[in-house]
Amino acid sequence: MPDSSTKELQPEERHPVQQRGLYFEEFDLKALYQHRPGRTVTEADNVLFTTMTMNTQSLHLDAAWSATQPFGERLVNSMFTLSTMVGSSVAQLTQGTIVANLGFSAVTFPHPLHHGDTLYSETIVTDKRLSKSRPGQGIITLEHRGRNQHGVIVGTAVRTVLVWCRGAAE
């Protein structure tokens, strides 16, 4: 029950809070950003992503053939793993504050992701600097890691992004 000494605010009287990523100044070199919730990957996810991207790799689509291969089953498309690792970071880190994705390096998949696994992603900031050629913007280097439900690393990627500085995008 509301306190009788305070008036109930109408929607137009409330100040808006919009979800966004971080501005350049807010990226913390000491933080471990954990992106939640995790994403349990289904067979349908893998088949849809694989066929949607025109990837005809039998290791993702052909159960009979994959059963004869070293892992004994179809594996989740590594590009799905990468996309989900990065995608899960957007709301927390770059939603509405990114100017451009500048590139990826050092992408690895040290352990396969299987149908039914849950992918948990995390990010650390390894470098940040103001842009020399674009006032009001900064360059952030992010190291993304994806782990399965057992904590095993299934993917890593270093990504460089250009983001707005606070106040410059308005």
UniProtKB/TrEMBL annotation:
It holds the Pfam family MaoC_dehydratas. Belongs to the enoyl-CoA hydratase/isomerase family. This is Acyl dehydratase. InterPro entries: HotDog_dom_sf, MaoC-like_dom, MCH/BMMD. Gene3D superfamilies: Hotdog Thioesterase. CDD domains: FkbR2. It comes from Cryobacterium levicorallinum. Residues 33-142 form the MaoC-like domain.
